[in-house]
């Protein structure tokens, strides 16, 4: 079940982050590290009501942040449409729960959340070396619209968007 995250979820979220960073670094993806993301980033997301978790019997097994905040680096990119979009940030799935459709479920949730909030458009980005997220975005029919320099990283971040169909 996907629900809004609460502060008591932070320990589980940070454990997922720790494992995800270790895994990312194993294939030379340094998108996340000791400096980002931190517990305060998630506490802020929770405070604003932007962080959601996949909860299986009281166990947080994944999370996603969705809001309207666009990094300044998005300016000047050739987005599909010029309208307000919801933006997906900080998403991960506990390694013990991978290959069970949780990442897809969280992304589909973000699509429904956008539609339910009157937005028919999603934007997101990920590090070019983050093969798992890049594969997920493509699988879910997000369109690669360009790349940007971000967070002082050596390689570019790929930017994606998706127009959502609102069923009647």
Task: Provide a descriptive summary of the structure in words.
It is a single chain. The chain has 168 residues and is of the alpha+beta class. It has a single domain (2-163), classed as Gcn5-related N-acetyltransferase (GNAT) (Aminopeptidase), CATH 3.40.630. Helices cover 30% and strands 27% of the residues. The chain has helices at 10-26, 39-48, 102-116, 131-139, and strands spanning 2-4, 51-56, 59-67, 86-93, 121-127, 143-148, 157-163. It has a seven-stranded mixed sheet. The mean pLDDT is 94.
Sheet having the most strands: 7 strands, mixed
Structural class: alpha+beta
- CATH topology name, in short, is Aminopeptidase
Helix content: 25-40%
H-E string? EHHEEEHEHEE
CATH class: Alpha Beta
Low-confidence runs of at least 5 consecutive residues: none
| Through-space gap between termini | 25 Å
Total discrete domains: 1
Per DSSP, the total helix count is: 4
Beta-strand content bin: 25-35%
What is the CATH homologous superfamily assignment? Gcn5-related N-acetyltransferase (GNAT)
**Spatial sequence of strands, sheet with the most strands:** 1-2-3-4-5-7-6
Per DSSP E runs of 2 or more residues, the count of β-strands stands at: 7
Keywords: Transferase
InterPro entries: Acyl_CoA_acyltransferase (IPR016181), GNAT_dom (IPR000182), NAT_camello-type (IPR050769)
Pfam families: Acetyltransf_1 (PF00583)
Domain N-acetyltransferase: 1-168
